[in-house]
Structures are given as structure tokens and as C-alpha cells.
Amino acid sequence: MQRIIKARLFLKINGFVLITGLLLSGCAGRPIGNNNTADYRNGMVVSANPFASKVGLDILKKGGNAVDAAVAVQFALAVVYPNAGNIGGGGFMVYRSATGVTNTLDFREKAGAAASRDMYLDAAGAPIVDKSLYGQLAAGVPGSVAGMVAAHAKYGKLPWATLLEPAILLARNGFPLSTQQAGELNNLREKLLQLNPDGTALLKDGTWAATELLKQEELATTLELIRDQGRAGFYEGRVADQIIQEMKRGGGILTKTDLQQYQAVWREAITGAYKGYRIITMPPPSSGGIALIQLLKSVEPYPLRRWGFQQDSTVQLMVEAERRVYADRATHLGDPDFYDVPAKALMEDQYTKDRMKNFDWSKATPSSVVKAGKVNAKEHEETTHFSIVDKAGNAVSVTTTLNGSYGAVVAVKGAGFLLNNEMDDFSVKPGAANMYGLVGGEANSIAPGKRMLSSMTPTILEKDGKLFMVVGTPGGSTIITSVFQTILNVIEFDHNMQQAVSAKRFHHQWLPDVIYTETGAIDSLTRVKLEVKGYIIAPRGPMGRVDAILKTKQGGYQGAADPRGDDQWLGW
Predict the structure, then answer these.
(1) How many CB atoms lie within 10 A of CB 414?
(2) Minimal CA–CA distance to 347: which of 277, 273, 442, 276?
(3) What whole-number distance in Å separates Cα of residue 131 and Cα of residue 406?
(4) What is the pTM for the complete model shown?
(5) 147 with 264: CB under 8 angstroms?
(6) pLDDT tens, 122-135?
(7) Per the residue annotation, which of 222, 281, 383, 399 is the catalytic one?
(8) Cβ distance 323 to 370 under 8 Å?
(9) What is the tens place of the pLDDT at every residue in 149-160?
(10) At a CB cut-off of 8 Å and minimum separation 6, what does 239 contact?
């Protein structure tokens, strides 16, 4: 039976209908309690913004495949979700065809040729924190446009221009801000003024209000150049000149050669197994895939289902696994084009078994005694993720980012898009923590042309050779654990997709030695049991914004949009 969800505001722009409020009619959904059991068979899109989700669904309805929809959603998010959606950043895509063929695309940003190992250190060798966080010097070479061009060239079906047009209309004619977006822009006002003295579309006289239109004419023009010229519309010509002029204005180091030489890279997927499910995920320079499979292998021998969701034994086991995996991450993971990542060794059954040998049920293992394992052989929380499945059953899981919220907080003058601050994801000084506490080592030190390590974990699961789940999330260091928990919630605790996504989360990342929890994630009795064993538990704000799709036993798709944001699923 078709369900109707009333929206608060309808805006029709050049025939493109935009809706704010809870959503569209019939095929749309935001979380309504934990009862999202709708079953759609022709395709589904789940993203961080309702307008971007609608763009993707419209592409599917026009006969586009999952990759076509992903390209359209990526460019739409660059307009309607400027704090993380982007053309000035980068990310990763995991792809699975309807016949089971898998591939991954690395369009992660790179350090410019003029980058140097100690470029963010003072004379005493201490990190200068703001230098890698704000301004032109914080930016790596953007990869998003090259990534979308590469994805479309290999798998796309509809014309390139068709996929760009919705984003162009949204930029030129505007879209109504959500309450959350208006508040974020108002909170960022002083920093935007400081770093954009000539103005940006994200600034206005006075404050932004919910439902107010944000128009981005300069961004629309840039998107038109990408529509008409493809890759050259961004990495060459007018836009490239504008990027270089921006570098000169603020002391950045990127050059035209850096832009022209950037290439997205197709890489073989990382795969693993968990209790009969096949995990297909992202290889380095994402740390997420290896870490996710390590975590699943670490807990697989234990009876999580019998212990129960968020019970003391369950939480303790997961935390101890996380502690060890994040220690490995800090030492062994980096850009595989620069560092010989021991991926196979890290994911061996015996290795993960050995890592858990010193786990003591009677007490917490102090992180001070947990080091990276011996083998033979950081991003900010304003990332964004989207999951898409088309009518034929092709699936994509895409996570993309500017790193910090609104990246370097610098809009390229005349081009209208934000620069990333991904250079902070390198180990600015090996052994020193970045802005959200992640520690890195030599494997992730800065080098010219190198890709910085990431926690992004776009993932696809199979069951009996068939598509089972598409999942991913933003959340910086919490990305890996949020995906880990979501998968366990479905497989071990029989949650439907929305229940799994909405469930409260907890997180441990080795250092600092603290279990971070969302409000209500661990009940008071369980908390006492853990604290008696020496665990330190601290509250914090929301973790991640998981957007996921589950293939149901009936053969349809069940979407889940994270209630922590404005996220939305759309199916047909």
C-alpha cells in the first residue's frame, strides 16, 4: 500500500520539484520510529540530503544505472550539502554489478608536488594545528571530479550532461535550507568572513533562516564547464586558473601540474567473510576495509547473538577488538603506492586470533600495553555517504569528503566550491594525534603526490552469492566502528535496516583509551559492570550518519536513512 508523507514546502524550479520537510509522497522515507519495512524492487537511493536522493532516484527512473545515479548524487550533494558534499574533495566507491563483478575506485585527494614531510611543524618540530586545518595550504589535490568521470566512463549508461543538469539547476535557482543547515552556516559565519574576504555564496547580510533559498551562481557556472568539458572543465582552463589564483592568495602550494596529473585509480576490492556473508570493501589508502574485516574476524568466534545487543560481554568484546585494530591502523596502513601495506597478513585468521589472545574478561586491557601487531610483510566527521541499487541489481557504496566541516572553509573565488583540508589526514608528525585524536605513523607521513590515509568504509555484503546489504557512513574515526556495529545489528541481533541504522552507538579507537557513547547506547547496569573492570566511558554527540540498503528475503530493497541528520531514502 502506498504511503503518503506530507511535505511542508514545495518549490518548482524549471520543472524540477524540490521538497523540504519530511519528504516526498509514496516512495520516500525518513526514519519513522523503527518500522521502516517498505519493500521496493526497482531501485533505491539513500543519501545525506533529500534533494540529492531525489536527483538519484530520478536518474534511475530515466533508465540510468546505479553508477549514473551515483554521479548525479555526488554533484547534487556538492550543491545541497556543502559541508561535506563536494567537487573540491575526494572519496571512494565500491561497486558490485548485478552479476557479482566487483571493483573499487579511489578518488582520494593527493598531496601536491611541493608538499614536504614537516610542512606543518614549527621550528621546534611541534605541529601548528590550524595550518593543516584552515586556508589554502590545508588543501590536497581534489579527486571528486576525476572520480566521477572515471566511474561514468567505465560503467555509465546515460549521457554525462544528463547527470550534471540537476545539480546545475539546484545551484543556479537555489534550494531551501534545512533548519540544521541554516544553523551550521550561521555558526560558521565568522570563519567564512575571515577566510573569504571577497565573499562567498555561503555568506549573506544577516543570518540564514530555515527554508531560505541558497543560490550558488558561480558553482552553477563551474558545473556547466564540467558538464560541457568533462574532466578538462575542472582540471584545466578557467577553473584550474581560479584554483591556482586561490592558492596564490592564501599561500597554498597546488599547481596546474598537480591538477593536470591527478588520476583516480581503480583498485581490487578487499574481501573477507563473516559467518557466511561475503564482505566487499575498500582497500588502502582507505584503512576502513582492512579494519572492518579485522574487527569482524576478531568477534566471529564468540556468541554475540546469545549475549545480546549492547550487553556487557558484547560491548567488552567489541571494544577490545577495536582497541587492537586501531593500534594496527596507526602503524601499518597508508597509501599503497608509497608504502607496502601488509593487507593479507593483517586479515589472516591466525593473526586476528593471536591479537585477541591477551584479552582478559576480568579487566580492561590498557591501551598503553596494546601495540601494533607484528606482521610479515584520520578524517573529520563531516564526510558524507550514499548507497544506491538500481533495477537490475547493480550496487554502489560511495563515501566522499572535504575532511572538516566545510573543508578548509575557503571557497575558490569565481568558481564557487570549497577547498578540502585533507592534508590534516596525514600524520603531520608521526606519533602525534590529529584533530580528532587519531594517531598515525611513518606509513602515513606526508610526501609529494601521496594519498592521505582515510577511515572511509564504503561496503557491500553478499549472502549466498547474492546482494545483501549496501552500507557506509561519515564520521571520521567513528566510520569504521559505525559500519561494524550496523552490520552486526542486522546479522547478529536481527534488526531491520532502519533499526540497525538508528540504534545508539559506541566507539573505541585505541587512543585515547576511552569508550565514547551516544546517549542511551549503554544502559546504567551495563555501564557499572564495565567500569568495575576498568573501562572509562564518556558521553559524546552523535556518531556517523549511516545510509544503507538491505535486500529483503522477498527480493525488494529496504532503505534506512540516519535520523542523526537530514538523510533520506527513496525507492520505487
Answers:
(1) 16
(2) 273
(3) 16
(4) 0.92
(5) yes
(6) 999 989 989 999 99
(7) 383
(8) yes
(9) 999 999 999 999
(10) 222, 225, 226, 233, 412, 415
- Complete DSSP assignment for 186-241: HHTHHHHHHH-TT--TT--SS---TT-EE--HHHHHHHHHHHHHTTHHHHSHHHHH
CA angle 468, 474, 478 (to 5 degrees): 95
- Cell digits of residue 149: 568521470
Identify whether the C-beta of residue 342 lies closer than 8 Å to the C-beta of residue 529.
no
The whole-angstrom separation of Cα 253 and Cα 244 is: 9
Active site residue 383: yes
H helices of 300-407, in order, are: 304-307, 312-332, 343-346, 349-355
C-alpha 140/C-alpha 276 separation (Å) is: 40
CB 262: neighbour CB atoms within 10 A? 24
The reported pLDDT for the residue numbered 442 is 80
**Domains in the chain, start-ordered, CATH in brackets?**
267-377+456-546 (1.10.246.130)
Question: Strand ranges (DSSP E) for 99-178?
Answer: 102-107, 175-176
- Cell numbers 577488538 correspond to 321
* Count of residues making up the chain: 572
Inter-residue contact 551 to 489 (CB < 8 Å): no
- Contact present, 169 and 13 (Cβ < 8 Å): yes
Confidence of residue 429 (pLDDT cuts 50, 70, 90): confident
Which residues are CB-neighbours of 65 under 8 A, at least 6 positions away? 155, 156, 157, 390, 392, 394
Task: Please report which helix (H) or strand (E) contains residue 47, including its range.
Answer: strand 44-47
* Cell 549503554 sits on residue: 522
Residue 50, all three cell numbers: 533529500
The three grid cell numbers given for residue 82, joined into one nine-digit string: 556543502
**Helix extents (H) in 4-143:** 50-61, 66-80
Separation CA 503–CA 54 (nearest Å) = 25
Q: Which residue has the cell 518548482?
A: 12
Classify residue 411 by burial, with Cβ atoms within 10 Å: 0-12, 13-18, 19+: buried
